[in-house]
Amino acid sequence: SSLLAIDLWASKRLGVCAGEGSAWGSARPLMKVIEVSGHGITWLLGTFYGLCQSDSAATREVLLNLLFALLLDLVLVAVVKGLVKRRRPTHNKMDMFVTISVDKYSFPSGHATRAALVCRFVLHHLVLAVPLRVLVVLWALIVGVSRVMLGRHNVTDVLFGLLLGYTLYSVVEYCWLSPLNAPALFALW
């Protein structure tokens, strides 16, 4: 119980953008932009759009697997949230961009899970210069930090979310969809 108390205390202290009147309340709009950058709908729509616009079989394969990863992430996070049912921090202001029923729960952070998953996916499947690779990793970490700063999650929700997303990428790689093992799926595109 002392670890839980430390988690709650640290989360409350770090929730500096939880409201407009908070210590860093003026940074709240920026934190909300970061929140949208890690939102599932943003990533699903962007991936689906890319998939529809793609003219290369290799690109379609990567994007189809990213879509699979994002859907798997949403389902897994919803199941864990539904099982654990940890309430969001009391200082959270429920003004999130598009929420569903399990979003009233806090553990794990879906944004953190998605950020870690997308980060590993992008680093593995895109050829990026070192500065861009660093920016991708920083984006994932900033998404996680923003969740606590906005008061949406406790520190452990974010840490577990980052770990879950990092691990989930390994599952996606293991179950990689290709024209050989999922020909019907690729015939649609």
UniProtKB/TrEMBL annotation:
Gene3D superfamilies named among the record's database cross-references: Phosphatidic acid phosphatase type 2/haloperoxidase
What membrane topology was assigned to this protein in its record?
Multi-pass membrane protein
User: Which region is the signal sequence?
Assistant: none
Annotated GO biological process: lipid metabolic process
Write down the InterPro entries for this protein, in alphabetical order: PAP2/HPO, PAP2/HPO_sf
Q: What are the GO MF terms of this UniProt record?
A: sphingosine-1-phosphate phosphatase activity
Q: Which domain of life is it from?
A: Eukaryota
Record keywords: Endoplasmic reticulum, Hydrolase, Lipid metabolism, Membrane, Nucleus, Transmembrane, Transmembrane helix
Is the keyword Transmembrane helix assigned to this protein?
yes
Q: Which residues cross the membrane?
A: 63-84, 121-146, 158-177
Q: Which GO terms describe its cellular component?
A: endoplasmic reticulum membrane; nuclear inner membrane
List locations, semicolon-separated.
Endoplasmic reticulum membrane; Nucleus inner membrane
Q: Where is the Phosphatidic acid phosphatase type 2/haloperoxidase domain?
A: 62-173
Q: Name one Pfam family in it.
A: PAP2
Classify the main location: endoplasmic reticulum
Q: Name the coiled-coil region(s).
A: none
UniProt-listed Enzyme Commission number(s): 3.6.1.68
Q: Which SMART domains match?
A: acidPPc (SM00014)
Record family assignment: Belongs to the PA-phosphatase related phosphoesterase family.
Kindly provide the name given to this protein in its UniProt entry: Polyisoprenoid diphosphate/phosphate phosphohydrolase PLPP6
Q: Which organism is it from?
A: Tauraco erythrolophus (Red-crested turaco)
